[in-house]
Design brief:
Layout: H1 3-10, E1 18-23, E2 28-35, E3 39-47, H2 49-52, H3 60-81, E4 91-97, H4 101-117, E5 122-126, H5 127-133, E6 139-140, E7 146-147, E8 162-166, E9 169-173, E10 182-187, E11 192-199, E12 202-208, H6 214-225, H7 231-239, H8 263-276, H9 288-291, H10 294-323, E13 327-331, H11 338-347, H12 364-376
Parallel strand pairs: 1-4, 3-6, 4-5, 10-13
Antiparallel strand pairs: 1-2, 2-3, 7-8, 8-9, 10-11, 11-12
Helix pairs in contact: 3-4, 5-12, 6-7, 6-8, 6-10, 7-10, 8-10, 10-11
Bound molecules: 5'-O-[(R)-(carboxyoxy)(hydroxy)phosphoryl]adenosine (KG4) and zinc ion.
């Protein structure tokens, strides 16, 4: 009998639910296995980012081809890391949107094939929702052992965060799952959104960006000032030697407090950089970087990072004041940013717990986590014969 027909009857029979999650929406080929929506059993991520660096951004055809080569070894490695066989897996979750069409297709077709071949229920996952669900992971599996918490210089997480192990990898996971109502700030290369969850699968989109996503702004600003792709990590490290108060860049003012706009900030950085090197606004943007000094570059990176984080935190605080959630969580690649984490922790009236950075950028464990809640809550099972991709899927 097909799983998608009997899934609703069967889901509650599982006490310990292990879901395998597949993620291929952009340039990371990833597979993770999660038990009961809280235990991380494996997290294998293979990025094709090095192949895209010379182009200054992800080239969709190269990403799709890399997924085809990597997907099966990544899934096999994920099973091995979790010490699982297919018999142990209760379902397959896969990102079906939003993302690059060719990339999504590889993950979805692989998941559909495996669901049929291994006779497992299939769950269709929204990538953006999954980013927030990475925050529900609080432990690794029974096969792992707990070690003492060790802090690093730029560690902004509360002391309660423990270090967990999976094989040779160690993770600093949240001590507790977020409580509802939960305010989620999703900040990635494609999305900037504030979302209020009343419960699992019951949420309202409070606001989002009108133009560029904040990650996109990091990437574009990095390009202008001559830092390598991806811009987020390279701006962060350049900012370490810069003075964030050197330049006062503008914050966009919009009618709704929960809407964002980052394209003006990117243009303001270009004008500032042109001005700093003694040229007017018609000086070609591709020539700006080579004329900047190291200290100008570091100061621009730090000033931009400060204002981008402030913009996000202003809106999050306003949403917190209005909706009084019991928890605030962040997700998406930009949620790895230490300045954003620092500002949020400093300004939010409630303590905020941060998740391990490797669970903030694209990964399969977040997809598996949300997949567990689909399975445990009896959400509809996707048809493995027909599930199609939705590159423009929204919340
Ligand atoms: O969530 P993600 O891995 O992929 C998308 O779904 O888009 O996010 C990628 C974005 C890129 O724009 C990258 O520059 C940004 O996240 N990013 C960062 C940091 N690490 C990655 N932005 C700021 N600070 C970081 N440390
Ligand atoms: Zn993402």
């Amino acid at each position: 009998m097909q799983w998608y027909v009997v899934g609703h009857i069967c889901y509650h029979l599982y006490v310990f639910m292990k879901i395998l999650g597949i993620e291929t929406s952009c340039d990371e080929t990833a597979c993770g296995i999660v038990e009961d929506g809280s235990k991380l059993l494996s997290n294998v991520v293979l990025s094709s980012i090095d192949l895209h660096k010379t182009y200054g951004g992800v080239v969709p055809e190269i990403a799709a081809r890399s997924h085809i080569e990597a997907i099966i070894p990544v899934i096999e490695q994920s099973l091995e890391q979790a010490k699982c066989s297919w018999d142990d897996i209760d379902g397959i979750a896969v990102t079906y949107g939003a993302g690059l069409g060719g990339s999504l297709l590889v993950g979805v077709m692989t998941a559909r094939t495996l669901a049929i071949a291994k006779n497992k229920p299939l769950y269709a996952i929204n990538h953006v929702e999954a980013h927030i669900y990475a925050n529900f992971l609080t432990a690794t599996g029974a096969v792992s052992s707990r070690s003492n918490h060790s802090s690093t210089a730029n560690d902004t997480a509360p002391a309660a965060v423990q270090e967990w192990r999976i094989g040779d990898d160690s993770y600093k996971l949240r001590a507790q799952q977020p409580e509802f109502p939960m305010l989620g700030l999703i900040v990635s290369g494609g999305h900037t959104q504030l979302v209020l969850w009343r419960d699992h699968f019951d949420y309202t989109l409070l606001g989002q960006t009108r133009d560029d996503a904040v990650g996109e702004a990091f990437d574009k600003v990095a390009k202008i000032i001559g830092l390598p792709y991806p811009g987020g990590p390279s701006i962060s490290s350049a900012a370490e030697t810069g003075d964030a108060e050197t330049y006062q860049l503008p914050k966009a003012r919009l009618d709704s407090a929960y809407e964002f706009s980052f394209s003006g900030l990117k243009t303001a950085v270009l004008r500032l950089a042109q001005n700093e090197i003694g040229h007017s606004h018609d000086f070609p943007s591709y020539k700006v970087a080579e004329n900047l000094s190291e200290s100008q570059r570091a100061n621009i990176a730090a000033s931009f990072q400060r204002i981008a984080a402030e913009t996000l935190v202003d809106a999050t605080l306003q949403a917190y004041d209005e909706h009084q959630p019991k928890s605030v969580v962040i997700g998406g690649g930009v949620a790895a940013n230490q300045e954003l984490r620092r500002q949020l922790a400093e300004r939010l009236p409630l303590p905020i717990e941060y998740q391990d950075i490797r669970l903030m950028t694209d990964n399969g464990a977040m997809v598996a986590t949300l997949g567990c809640y689909h399975a445990m809550r009896g959400q509809p099972i996707a048809n493995p014969e027909t599930l199609s991709i939705e590159p423009n899927l929204s919340m």
